[in-house]
Amino acid sequence: MNHASKAALLCASALFFGGGWQPAAAQEHGRPEQSRQQGREQGHEGREQGRGEGRGPQGRPAVDARGQVLDARHNHGRYYPAVGSVRSSLPEGYRPYYRGRDRFYFSGGIWYAPRGPGFAVVVPPPGLVISVLPPYYSTVWFGGIPYYYADNVYYTWQADQNGYAVADPPTDADAPSSPPDNAQQDLIIYPKGGQSKDQQAADQFECHTWAKGQTGFDPTQPGGGEPGGSAMSRSNYDRAMSACLTARGYQVN
Predict the structure, then answer these.
(1) Does 8 fall in a domain?
(2) Is residue 64 part of a domain?
(3) I need a surface site. Which of 8, 46, 102, 132 has the fewest CB within 10 A?
(4) DSSP line for 153-214
């Protein structure tokens, strides 16, 4: 083999053993780089989506540091454990409720039901009656009736049971109405506890319902709903209203 042939053979070998690996090596290095670039783009897109989907009203996080979910409906603005989440034991101060063979437990506005060895957060069935509303709730009006809302549950006042019943969500739940004008105008009512206008309207509505049931007199009806009206019935009604509102923290004159 002459010198020229040897030189050609060496060049071919270099291309095969050296240059042949180079494109492959460059391709392998290119893929991770491309993957990293795609990852950065996807990560940025994900964060941007997270800013939209992971934020509640006024920029509050949709999920807090403890994994609780923001309930922003009706401007409620409280965090609660997600429905379906399970805890090993019930919190202190819970109250038991029963519906047939089903057991439910209520504490701090949150409902639980047995789930295996623990207790799962659930939405309670309509009809369960509690004597005291959750510590934090929002008053929402629909068709002249106040509903009390907390943690995706609506409650309505039931005078015959002297408590608040879990209710089905009202029709057009996302379009509440304004509080009605006060049905009882003769009494002068002062909110000693700084109750809001909505809360005062709700308290007056409930006290009106209770006083009407106690006395049979309804000042929103002509003649109080009684043939010929009755001054004594009106006086009893006013006394009942005053007692109810005073017990709720109002000064009544």
Answers:
(1) yes
(2) no
(3) 132
(4) EEEEEEGGGTEEEEEPPPTTTTS-BPPPPPS--SS-EEETT---HHHHHHHHHHHHHHHHHH
DSSP letter, residue 195: -
Kindly state whether residues 197 and 244 are assigned to the same domain.
Answer: yes
Q: Domains in the chain: how many in total?
A: 3
Q: What distances in angstroms separate CA 52 from CA 42, 46, 55, 137, 150, one per listed residue? A: 15, 10, 6, 26, 24
Average pLDDT by stretches of 10, the chain with 253 residues? 48 42 33 35 34 57 92 91 96 94 95 97 96 86 88 90 90 80 65 86 87 82 63 80 91 85
Core vs surface per residue 109-125: b (16+ CB within 10 A) or e:
bbbbbeeeeebbbbebe
Instruction: Report the predicted TM-score, pTM, of the whole model to 2 decimal places.
Output: 0.58
Residue type, 199: Q
